[in-house]
Write a structure and sequence with these properties.
By secondary structure, the chain is mostly helical. It is built from 4 helices and 2 strands, in the order E-H-H-H-E-H. Helices cover 45% and strands 5% of the residues.
Length: 82
């Protein structure tokens, strides 16, 4: 049986979650978004970080990196729990 690997860029994941929620504004400050000013995903990262979706990612967060399936599920779960 062939193993399927699912990955998505963190920037695309945060953009998708933001769009799926009606593109609300960030509810607080985001240290992660300050690291990526002026990028197409800055608002999405600010929203996801301020909302706690990216909790515990810290310095390891990189919007251009691929997110493993376990992280994708965690972010989706946190988004649904809001």
């Amino acid at each position: 049986m062939k193993k399927t690997v699912v990955t998505i860029l963190l920037s695309a994941l945060t953009l998708g979650l933001l769009a799926g929620c009606g593109e609300p504004a960030a509810s607080g400050a985001s240290s992660l978004a300050q690291s990526y000013p002026g990028k197409y995903y800055t608002d999405a990262v600010a929203w996801a970080d301020a909302g706690g979706l990216l909790a515990d990612t810290g310095a390891a967060f990189n919007p251009a990196s691929q997110s493993p399936r376990a992280n994708i599920v965690t972010y989706l779960y946190r988004n649904l729990a809001e």
